[in-house]
Structure formats: C-alpha cells, structure tokens
Amino acid sequence: MSPPRGPLSQLRRGHEELVLGLLRKHGPLSRGELGKLCRLSRTTLYDILAELVATGAVVPAGQQDDGPRGRGRPAETLALNPGAGQAIGIDFARRALHVAAVNLAHEIVGAASEPHDADLPWERRVDLAERLIGRLGGGDLRLGALSAIGAGVVGPISDPGGGPDGGPDGGPDSDIESNIESDGGIESDGEAGEPLPHRAQVLLRERFGVPVLLDNNTRLAALGEAIWGAAAGGRDALYLRLSHGVGGGLVIDGSLHRGAYGLSGEFGHIVVDPGGRPCSCGGTGCLETVASVRAVLDAYRDRGGHADDVRDLVEAAGRAEPGALALLAEVGADIGAVLAALCNAVGPGVIVIGGELAETGAALLEPIGRTLDARVMPISRHRVSLRRATLGEAAGALGGIALVLHESPLLSRYPAGPDLAAGVPPLSPRHHNLVKEGS
Predict the structure, then answer these.
(1) What residues pair up with 115 in beta bridges, in sequence order?
(2) 340 neighbors 229 (Cβ within 8 angstroms)
C-alpha cells in the first residue's frame, strides 16, 4: 500500500523532485555540482541521492575531471536511469487492455495491448496489466520508482483525484460511477459486486503500492490525442471514439472538459433514431446502437455480409464491396448528424475520429464529412477540420500518463489528486516519435 504522506514525507519528496529535475535539465552531474545547484545541505543531499540510487531512479554515469583537484580519483557523476519507471497509464477498455509508460526523463519507453473477454474478472485484468507493463522497455522497467498510475475505465468517474473509493467523499456513488456495458447491464466485479471504479482503483493500489488516478478511458484518449495526436495544439477540439462503445471528449478553450459528475463526452447516447433499438443506457436509438463495433458488424451480417471482426469489414471496404460501402455511408451520415449538432453547440476547430471503426478510413470519414458540410452552420463550416486519430490503441493509456504528470494546460481545471507531487516537468520533446514507435 502507499505509505503515509505527512509534512516530512512531502518535504522529502520535494527534495527528491528537485534533484531529479536538475538531472533532467542538466544531464549527468557530480555530487558537488548537484550541491551547488540545489543548495541543500551536504547531509540532506547525500541522503536523498543514496535513496534514489537504492531505488534505481539514479545511476552512476561515469567519472569526470573537475579540473585542478589535487590528488584523488575524478568525481563520479550521476544520471537519471532511463530504465526506471515513473508514471504508467492503463486503459481498461471493454474487451482489451492497453498500457504505456514513461521513464524518469518523461520519455515514452513503450506501449502494449492485448485483447480479452468482456467478462474477464478484475483480478485477472490487473494481472494482465502487470504482465504487459513488465514487457515495456524491454523488460528493464524499474517499477520501484513509480510515482503514480493513471487508469482509464469504462463509464463516468466523478473525481479523478478522489479517495480509493473513487468519489470525493470516499464512497462510490452507484448512480454516477457505475459503468454501463454496451452489451447491457452494470459493469462490476462479479464476486464482490463493487462498482468498477472502486474495484479497479483498490486492486491497482494493492498491486503497485502507489496512488491511482481514474477517469473515463475515452476522455483520456481524447486527452492523449489533444496533447500528442491529431488535435495537438488546438484550443477547441472534439474527439469521438467508435469502438465497442461510443464516446468522446471535449477540449474547450484549452482545457479538457469533464462536466458535472464527470459526465461530459457521452456522445454515444445522443439519439439518432427515436424508433430504433434499445440502448444499454435505458434510451432508444442512441448513436451507440448504430455506430458501435457490434452494431455495425451485426448490420453488415444482416445484409448478407461476412465479417468476424472489424478487420474483415475494413478489407471489404478496401475492395469496394457495395454492401460494406453502403452501410458505412449510412453509419457515417448518422455520426455526421450528431457531430454537426455538437459543432453548432460547441464550435470546435478540430474533430478527431478514433477507435476501431476509424480503420475503415475514407469509406466512413467521407460520409461523415459530407454530412458535416450539409448541417454545420455555413459561417463556421470551413473552420472545422475533420481528422483521423493518430495514436491508435495507446491513446487512452497515454492520456492516463498525462493525468498523472498533470503538466498539460489541458488539465488546468482538473483535480490533481491529494497524493501527487506538484511541479512535475513537461514531457521530453522526444515523446512524439517514441509514442508513434510504441503504439
């Protein structure tokens, strides 16, 4: 479990971050150079360095000649250990798990994914997360240096920085924090009956012994795309993920919008057909009933198409199979109608489409674009850019890392969490290429 964090512990953590920040900024330094820069007492500095070396966060980097020193060996230099983990992001999607990690230099060291059954127990999902994390960085990731984990889960989360029970009052709100599966029903731990956010947070804290921040996994994917991906640099952006569920996120005036009780971004539950199929949310004819992976594949099969998964549908669209193109045109029109209404209400400059169904490419994106052109107000029509997501399956996990680091201006209105140290430096400029390689 996470150790208690009183005033002395917080002060020590501040000293550790000061030393780590100097090594981040300047590269390898001798103890003498660190002493001049940090202005801590010799005893305090050496005690901090001993702890950082013992945990693997800092490693010897060689020796340097400091100039005239008299007799004796050259001074030893210390550096950040690039294999030491500091922050991990996990995306607990409905039928897959995605992880990513950054090292102490805030460089992405890797990302990994693995599908699983929708009813996989939560203890086994956490086991899977631990196994995938163990593969990152070539298996050299040092988990002892972790500061926190950011995790995305299905459904609304009232407070990413709340207590272990998920909510700001320390207890789960069954009306708000329950998670609805696209297959119907409340997603919870089968044995304990606990709502998913509480169960996931407790299991992760017990397993890794560090603070855990939770948020909706699709909103974290929106955060990842807004920081590193297709919407990077935009102050007003809308992200829509078309997966086994349908949801998204909004960036408004440079900040990721959570909404009351964390309910922002539930675009999949906007009605497109009042006489349509029942939705797992209790409504009828929601976008999710026509634009989720299951809904689209079922509709394709009903029309005589053969597709076991999205890959088969992508291949059918790629060879211009008429049934696949006609279906995707209809689905794209429904998606475009919802996005046009959101555009007229919110006014985003960028719309990003992600999720497995985005892999169908132009067959889906072009009908979305045509409907946007027809329904967005003429005065703003040319100001909206429709883009395909670029981060792939790693987007939600990377958003979890951003939630932990809390350095992006996009998170200026998010609770940072009571356990997390303030003033974490931004990610390395190398992060973008590393993300692409890892995903």
Answers:
(1) 96
(2) no
- Beta-bridged to residue 284, according to DSSP, are 278
Query: What is the pTM (predicted TM-score) of this model?
Result: 0.74
Q: Sort residue 119 into left (φ over 0), alpha (ψ -120 to 50) or beta.
A: alpha
**Tokens linked to 325:** 């193109």
Distance of CA 120 to CAs 128, 195, 410, Å?
10, 15, 33
Average pLDDT over residues 42-63: 87
Distance CA 397, CA 101 (A): 8
The Cβ of residue 173 has, within 10 Å, a number of other Cβ atoms equal to 18
Six-digit token string for 56: 């693997």
Cβ neighbours of residue 119 under 8 Å, at least 6 residues apart? Answer: 190
CB 78 within 8 A of CB 30: yes
CA gap 37, 129 in Å, rounded: 39
Residue 221: half-sphere exposure toward Cβ, Cα within 13 Å: 33
E-strand ranges in 16-84 read 29-30, 58-64, 75-80
- Segment 284-298, tens digit of pLDDT: 999 999 999 999 999
* 439 within 8 A of 397, measured Cβ to Cβ: no
- Residue 409's φ and ψ, nearest 5 degrees, are -55, -20
- Tell me: the pLDDT tens digits for 307-339? 999 999 999 999 999 999 999 999 999 999 999
Give Rg (Cα) of the chain: 24
Judging by beta carbons within 10 Å of its beta carbon (0-12, 13-18, 19+), is residue 255 exposed, middle or buried?
Answer: middle
Instruction: Sort 34 into a burial class: Cβ within 10 Å, 0-12 / 13-18 / 19+.
Output: buried
What six digits make up the tokens of 46? 């050496």
